[in-house]
Amino acid sequence: MYAVIRTGGKQYRVQPGDLVVVEKLDGEPGAAIAFDQVLMIGDGPAVTVGAPIIAGASVSATLVETRKGKKIKVFKKIRRQGYRRTRGHRQFESVLRITALSGDGRDASWDGEVDLTPLAVLNARARNLARGMEAAAGAKEARPAAEPRAAKVKAKAAAKKAAAKKAAPKKIAPKKVAAKKADAEKPSVAEAAAPAAKAPAAKKPAPKKAAAEKPVKKAVAKKAEAKGGTAAKPKPKAAKAKSAKD
User: Taking the CB of residue 18, how many other CB atoms lie within 10 A of it?
Assistant: First the structure.
């Protein structure tokens, strides 16, 4: 047994147990939906056609999910004008499971259970990614509420300031530094009490010896004394050698 219904400006041929994708309908997954615009009911050779709908006929369905369909590309061009535009669109759609038909004194129903698993999860299972999706969903639930951005920025700034204070060396006041230097220069109490005799006497520098005068030869000295003048300096050796030759 089958029926032809109208929804969203389109017509669909359905029968119990079919999975139908129609234009977006209001409702949560698992909600029951009834269509009263039944245009035709067929059961083998017996066919009933409405004018335009069959009075009292209805089709029951269960909403599985509402999702976005495949992307449609919209391309526009104006020749000789350099105009080209490409846009994309994804239409919302609802997935229904047909559960029962009734009308013209005949009824038909589906005895199966409606599976509300969305298509995205089915695709992930087909690609062996279901475990990853379940883990991600669990992590989202366990994740605490996000703090506002301003609070995060303030916390980071406070942490940086605290770290800078710990890392910076401590400054000593100048007065304290001067006092420490004066204490270091003062002799200790033990050094002041020690007798001064024990301290080794400073060695006096030895007087410089007067430069020894060069001895003047006796003969030259005698001649100088005889003449009554100062002793003349001896001539160099070369001069003596010339005088001997002469």
Answer: 15
Peptide bond just before 215 cis, omega within 30 deg: no
Instruction: Convert the pLDDT of each residue in 1-57 to its tens digit.
Output: 999 999 999 999 999 999 999 999 999 999 999 999 999 999 888 899 989 999 999
pTM over 0.85: no
d(CA 106, CA 42): 10
Tokens, residue 116: 């509300």
Distance CA 132, CA 138 (A): 10
* CA torsion angle 235 237 242 246 (round to 10): 80
Q: How far apart are CA 42 and CA 61, in angstroms?
A: 18
Pairing of the two strands 32-35 and 19-23: unpaired
Query: What is the token pair recorded at 45?
Result: 């050779």
Domain ranges of the chain: 2-133
Which contacts of 107-110 are long-range, i.e. CB under 8 A and separated by 24 or more positions?
108/1, 108/15, 108/16, 109/16, 110/16, 110/17
| Structural contact between residues 23 and 8, judged by C-beta atoms closer than 8 angstroms | yes
Q: What share of the chain is helix, strand, coil (3-state, %, to 5)?
A: 30, 30, 40
Q: How many CB atoms lie within 10 A of CB 96?
A: 24
What tens digit of pLDDT does each residue of 84-141 get? 999 999 999 999 999 999 988 889 999 999 999 999 888 888 888 767 667 777 776 6
